[in-house]
Design brief:
By secondary structure, the protein is of the alpha/beta class. The chain has 12 helices and 11 strands. The chain starts with 7 loop residues before the first helix and ends with a helix. The structure holds manganese (II) ion. The site of manganese (II) ion has 6 residues, from loops.
Amino acid sequence: MLQINIPQGVIDCINKTDKFVVMAHKQPDADTLCSALAIESFLSRIGKKTSLYTAGPFTRIETLHLQDKFKTTTMSDEDKEGAVLIIVDCNSPDRVGFFEEEIKEMPVMVIDHHATVSDFGTYNWIDPTYPATTLMIQDLITFFNEVPTPYEAETLFLGFCTDTGFFRHLDHGTEESIKRAAELVKYGASPKQTFTIMTGGKNLSSRKLMGRILERAESYYDGKVIVSWEDLIDREELKAEDRDSDTLYQALLSITGVEAIAIVRQESDTKCTVGLRSVQDVDVRKLAQTFGGGGHQRASGFAVEGKLKDIKEELISRFQNYL
Ligand SMILES: [Mn+2]
């Protein structure tokens, strides 16, 4: 059961502060961007001075239309002077990218639903029972006896839908989240338009890249684990940037008997990133943590130095401890 349980320090800080810098994490997804946009919109309409930043880059198709609302350069003194920094959807300083150094002298408020808790932040509101950070922002607006504007409702709904896989990741006991989503529809969000933003905009090369990754998928541990990969050559040959991870993960997770999947992506000759997903019980966050990554129980990832082949083999071997 989701309850509005905002720490008093966060509320007091919003009440007594006139100026905020709102920041989304680096390599932003829709949840962090939409959380930032909605809280910025809310704070500015209750009379606060605000500015919006992220280190970017904007790579996810469903976030491209949000890009021009954010500053992606070093903070200006005008924005920074006397401001409290609000960071949404992450709770460690390295997740803000190149801003890490310059935010050190600022008071920081962290609003996040990830379980990894650091002592970063002067005012923290961290609650992993929320399925999306946007839902926390929605509760914050409600707490201040306001309702979302149509723009805020639409924005909050997009963040909520991307983090919940358009409700697919919501299990029993999530009726409070769905009630809040219904409120957003009441105040101006369209599920139909949101689904189009989330699933449209693809190009042929991304489908072909997905085809290659599916073709290469191999099964381990009696079919419980599926691992596949993509390398630099794939992306160069296909001129593909985006592989549409969500659709790809879905396709592999839907195989009978599969409990978890991993896709290794070569980023350079010496570096790879790995995306992990599980159907139900396998805790892929714990597995990702052994490589220095993190995330959620059923969705996690990490970046690691090494050759694609070696990383893949090490990953397959470490899986046995988590099945
Ligand atoms: Mn999130």
